User: Fold this.
Amino acid sequence: MKALTRLREQHENMTVLQAMCLLFIAENPGATAHQIFEALGTSDSVVSRNLALLCDVGVRNSSSLGLVEMKINPADRREKLLTLTSAGRKLMNQGLTELARGE
Assistant:
């Protein structure tokens, strides 16, 4: 729970669900949206909207955070594989470093 709080403190526009998605992707590089919604127990449409905000896609009237990258799965073009961008890795590393130091 501290990791979620720390991520949200570092990025003021991040929701709890977005932070949870970001943590899942950090722990599971190459994860799919389907894997995330199964793990978090929420609907696929909610996860899709939050992933769009985390990626460079964005959603109408909301700017993207640019923390996650979507790539088409070469084995199944219907799936998109999710990884952290350099900005996403930096945010995660910074938050985890602060947690380890007890800040």
Observations:
- The first helix runs from residue 2 to 10.
- The first strand starts at residue 68 and ends at 73.
- The domain at 2-97 is CATH 1.10.10.10 (Arc Repressor Mutant, subunit A).
- Strands lie at 68-73, 76-84.
